[in-house]
């Protein structure tokens, strides 16, 4: 009898799988809305409203929102969660981090890229081109994110993947106003085209150079359209 009790005490606790899955669903949905600019700086994300929308308790929603806070997408306040306010200095620092991380990461990903991923890059690029022709900013943003996610999936370092995604998303949140500009659309399309060519040829040097230029052009365009420093 004592042996049976001992065995029982050693059994691992069962994971609340449904709640974990729901929290992940909420996290992904809110993050997507932030990427698209559907949650604006003056908006407040309230856990009970999100819980009502997903027809669930507040606990998985709180888990998702706190995860977004931890990753820098949101800031907690006494009246809900809001988009963080980033200064020009913050933006320049984020662009600097992107220049340090993304070119070498993308160049390294070329060797690991599968044919399926290459096809996905092509689809994302074609989607972006169609959006450009229609002047469809939302679809262009989605296509750009899809393109980035594909090559990032080929990066072997999971922590590096996560860091690049966060920095790129944080910049995009404040760049949404400039992304509506037609000249910015052209920068996105041209950058994707050169990167796609580099990935197709598995040319790390070309990818590195293209990514550096893409980030530099995005930073220059952002500050040019907003009139420079704060």
UniProtKB/TrEMBL annotation:
Residue stretches making up the HTH gntR-type domain: 20-86
Q: Give an example GO molecular function.
A: DNA-binding transcription factor activity
Q: Quick check: keyword DNA-binding in the entry?
A: yes
Q: Name one Pfam family in it.
A: GntR
| SUPFAM superfamilies in alphabetical order | GntR ligand-binding domain-like (SSF48008), Winged helix' DNA-binding domain (SSF46785)
Q: Which PROSITE patterns match?
A: HTH_GNTR
**What's the superkingdom here?**
Bacteria
Annotated keywords = DNA-binding, Transcription, Transcription regulation
Tell me which Gene3D superfamilies the record gives. Answer: GntR ligand-binding domain-like, Winged helix-like DNA-binding domain superfamily/Winged helix DNA-binding domain
Checking PANTHER family in the record gives:
GLUCONATE OPERON TRANSCRIPTIONAL REPRESSOR (PTHR43537:SF24), TRANSCRIPTIONAL REGULATOR, GNTR FAMILY (PTHR43537)
Which protein are we looking at?
GntR family transcriptional regulator
UniProt source species:
Paraburkholderia polaris
